[in-house]
Amino acid sequence: MRLPYRIAGLWVRVVLLVVLLWGALVSVLSLTPRERTLADFRTALRAGQVTYVIYRGEQTDLRWSTAPLFWYRAHQPEPYTRRDLLRDLDPAVPGPEVAWARSRWAFFSGWPFHVPVHGAAWPVGVAWIVALLVMLGIERPRLGNRWAWFWLFTVGEVGAILFLLLEPRSLWHGLESQESLSKPLSGGRGCALAVCLSVVIPILAAVGLSYVFHALLDLLPLSP
């Protein structure tokens, strides 16, 4: 009777992983937009092409999206205030969703709950919460204890994705059993690894993933 449960569990992992990977990809692309001008933003806005806007007034950071995978940043020499943005949004039909500057959580950016796509925060956030509950509920994680995984989920940013890939057996092992590490990660080592990941992952995402993905998009005939 355990085989049907293993099959169901495997499919649940795959679904959760796909949702989180999609949310992570969109989040990374929103952090590494292509440079455009303020005039380009206003033109796209009047044409109803803008679907999402991120504005941080302290740094006059204006980013917008015309589709989940296409992100741009306005490079403007003059100040662009919140009032200017609200005035420009008035004639926009349909109006885009706007995300204003938000504070970072104490030790967790909360990216699964702030995916910059309309209506995407709840499925990605739910997927992250379900993965966390699964981590807390399994009998014995294979690669590290629960404290190690907790730090990877929060400080490490990508712990939920790694957990779904690797626990309780690597996803590519399918239904086959897999031995645990002789020395699983302790809470302390998990925390140290999480801190390292929180520094390395954004750099790799910005320099590697976004560059490769933008290059692939350039090959598409419909790429804006």
Output the structural class. Answer: alpha/beta
Helix content: 40-55%
Quaternary organisation of the protein chains: single chain
Number of strands: 5
Query: How much is the radius of gyration in Å?
Result: 20 Å
The rounded distance between the terminal residues' Cα atoms is: 52 Å
Strand order of the largest sheet: 1-4-3-2-5
The main sheet comes to: 5 strands, mixed
User: Per the principal axes of the C-alpha atoms, what is the gross shape?
Assistant: elongated
Reading the helices and strands in chain order gives HEHEEEHEHHHH
User: Which band does the percent of strand residues land in?
Assistant: 5-15%
Alpha plus pi helix count: 7
Compact overview of the structure:
The chain has 224 residues and is an alpha/beta fold.
Jot down its keywords.
224 residues, alpha/beta, 7 helices, elongated
How would you describe this structure to a colleague?
It is built from 7 helices and 5 strands; from the N terminus they run αβαβββαβαααα. The chain is α/β, with parallel strands linked by helices and about 220 residues long. It has a 5-stranded mixed sheet with strand order 1-4-3-2-5. A hairpin with a 4-residue loop joins strand 2 (about 50-55) and strand 3 (about 60-65). The termini are far apart.
